[in-house]
Amino acid sequence: MPVCTVSGTVRDNQGQVLASTKIVFERTGVFGQDSSVVIPRSVGVTSDAAGLITVDLYPGVYLATTIGIRGPARFAVGVPDAPSANLADIIDQYPAITSSVLSDAVEARDRAEAAADRVDLGALDAAVQATADDALATGFDREQTGLDVLAAEAARDAAFVNADVYADIETGRAAVADGGQFQVVTGDQ
Questions:
Q1: Which of 4, 110, 112, 159 has its CA 20 to 30 A from that of 71?
Q2: Is the pTM higher than 0.85?
Q3: Which is nearest to 105 in space by CA: 59, 48, 144, 162?
């Protein structure tokens, strides 16, 4: 993308020449150049004793800031896709959409669409569904485990309730196989 040589006299809002004043131009958007994306950059220039500047800028919209003894001032500059431009003619102007700007925008759109097409939404949906199914199955497994624990506790309690009753521990141990259960009468009952 060719640059535009911008030149002119810098003045304040009272019409006074801004001599020896630094002006920083900051591009407000990215742009394509030779199949690459160029990030906005700042370009600084200092006016001469008569307030004149000359600066090379890529076409596009810039936010310009003056830095000098009269304090900062900000203004927009629309740099055209042309070999040169007068600063006074492009302040607060926006460049026309040229074929190169339009083709850069179309290329950027096409790259974004191609990137979006590479995302397989069907596979993503299937992965989300599989995860949900796994979570549901885990929940059912936990519920079944809880039921199994309750059944084991009930069987243990039933076995204890149905165990034979003996007068004392020694008699119970003698009558029951190792690991078996029995009950012993205690107290006044």
A1: 4
A2: no
A3: 59
